[in-house]
Amino acid sequence: MSLLEVENLRVTFSTETGPVEAVRGVSFQLGRERLGIVGESGSGKTMTGRAVLRLIRPPGKIQTDRMIFDGQDLSKASERDMRALRGRRIAMVMQDPKYSLNPVMRVGDQLTEGLRQRDRLGAAEARKKALAALEAVQIRDPERVMDAYPHELSGGMGQRVMIAMMLIPEPDLLIADEPTSALDVTVQAEVLSILDGLVRERGMGLIFISHDLRLVARFCDRVLVMYKGRVVEELVARDLMAAQHPYTRGLLNCLPRIGGSRAPLPGLDRTGTWAND
Amino acid sequence: MTDYIEIQDLSVTFDAKGRKVKAVEGVSLCVDKHKSYGLVGESGSGKSTILRAICGLAPITGGTIKIGGEALPSPRGKSFSARVQMVFQDPYASLHPRHTIDRTLSEPLMIHGIGDTDSRVMKALDDVGLPKSFRFRYPHQLSGGQRQRVAIARALMLQPEILLLDEPTSALDASVQAEVLNLLTRLREERGLTFLMVSHDLAVIDHICDDILVMQHGRAVEELSREDLASARISTVYARSLFDASADRLLG
Questions:
Q1: ipTM above 0.95, yes or no
Q2: How close, in Å, is residue B108 to chain A by CA atoms?
Q3: Are A40 and B175 inside 8 Å of each other by CB?
Q4: What are the tens digits of pLDDT across the range B21-72?
Q5: Residue A244's Cα: distance from chain center in Å?
Q6: At residue B252, does pLDDT exceed 60?
Q7: Could you tell me which chain A residue has the CA closest to the CA of B205?
Q8: 3-state secondary structure B56-78
Q9: CB A211 within 8 A of CB A44
Q10: pLDDT tens, position by position, B63-120
């Protein structure tokens, strides 16, 4: 049974020069697995993730034939129902900790805010849960981090704080938007293994949005490759390196390799028919 | 050939709320003229701090930095900036949001009293592959890759000999990264530049640099040549773990 079913999703922004379609008819299904969405910036991968949570502000509009999460049609749900789902059942880790954490609130207060408001926990109990969540994302000195402001943390720490915050309510579906692109390889591996553990042990569904093809190939089960708001190719992740679509091949070829030649890297050829429809 | 950039036993210590934070501890490195040298390591390993120390943007508490055999003056002064320029990581933060590209590019010329601004700005845009029509645009009208091209053009306005590159492509998409890396390679060949580049992506470093220094916790861990890296001749545990974590970036 699939956890999330999206059919013909469109996100449109009306601008002065007419409507701009950021997502143009995306359909996919997600079970309790790791689904990767890759593409360049502007390909609509973040908008797809946000549209599932209906987090697109006017003038942006979401249209879809069906968007079913665990038996509930999200496209018809009231704003009140959406509020009950957001965070508790579907959570999203945003891209940049610098802009997504409240800069004038201590990390501890941000982590416990949901627990105290939503779950009506007492201060001591909420703090205990928050500390456990920070430990779960491998933060070495959780007591110090609880009392710190976001600007006192490095990018990697901030990213892990956001993941901890999203995981406290134990969601069924996590949408992670470039959760590791601010991190370096060694920390990246740690964060991925945390996410991996959650998918395995708790049967959480994960939508992993990234522009790093090699990372997605290694980490996800299935991959959607997006270009200009459309899915151009859907693949089993371990076959990503053997992708056939010219766009996917182009993205792979323009990456430098250790021990590769020093010749200029091939650019992305956008002249094919696939690029213009 | 003598060493062109020579860093001996460099230490940088920051004072954070009365606590001493040692960002760089006793790092030495040498770069020959026209060569390209890479610094890799996790965040907080002090690699960017070394670049900032060269520019006089970090408090040096020990050791020496020499360029072309001369110790650097403090403050660095005009002759230094005519010789050494830096390109920063984030093209969204490193360009003045309310200055046009024209103003960003002509400011160094004005400070150094160099005339002929018009043709120099046009040539600079051309050199980094930007159309002339971009001259009077603002940074917010440009994409990330275009902004990074402007940042590179700005760094080259004074025709320096050395470029310090602080993660110049890590904020960019794969296809745009390829374009910027090709641009840097071409400019280095054309102008005989010396690069000192920081990156956390071993594949990017390998593509650009001849020699690599692996850093951790502010210390130098291991120095590798490009051949060592390609054939995985790595002796320290940390450099090995970094290499293994980049296994998907290997050729093949």
A1: no
A2: 30
A3: yes
A4: 888 999 999 999 999 999 998 877 888 899 999 999 999 999 999 998 889 9
A5: 25
A6: no
A7: A258
A8: CCCCEEEEEEEECCEECCCCCHH
A9: no
A10: 999 998 889 988 898 999 999 999 988 888 889 999 999 999 999 999 999 989 999 9
Residues from chain A contacting residue B206 (CB–CB below 8 Å): 256-260
Phi, psi of A216 (to 5 degrees): -65, -40
B122: left (phi over 0), alpha (psi -120 to 50) or beta: alpha
Q: Give the residue on B whose Cα is nearest the Cα of A214.
A: B248
Looking at the complex, report in whole angstroms how far the Cα of residue B129 sits from the nearest Cα belonging to chain A. 14
Tell me which residue in B43, B200, B203 faces A258 most closely, judged by beta carbons: B203
Asked, as a colleague might, if the bond just before B75 is cis with ω within 30 of 0, I would say yes
Sort out which chain B residues have CB atoms less than 8 A from A242's CB and list them: none
* A40: chain B residues, CB-CB within 8 Å: 173-176
A218/B248 touch (CB, cutoff 8 Å), yes or no: yes
Q: How many CB atoms lie within 10 A of CB B145?
A: 20
Asked if the Cβ–Cβ distance from B200 to A184 is below 8 Å, we say yes
For the CA atoms of B67, B72, B78, B81, the dihedral, rounded to the nearest 10 degrees, stands at 50
Q: Domains, chain B, ranges and CATH? A: 3-92+161-249 (3.40.50.300)
CB contact under 8 A, B207 and A214: no
Token couple for A107: 């990390």
Query: Which residues in chain B have their CB less than 8 angstroms from residue A211's CB?
Result: 173-174
> For residue B200, what is the nearest residue in chain A, using CA coordinates?
A184
Q: Which residue has the tokens 């940074």?
A: B139
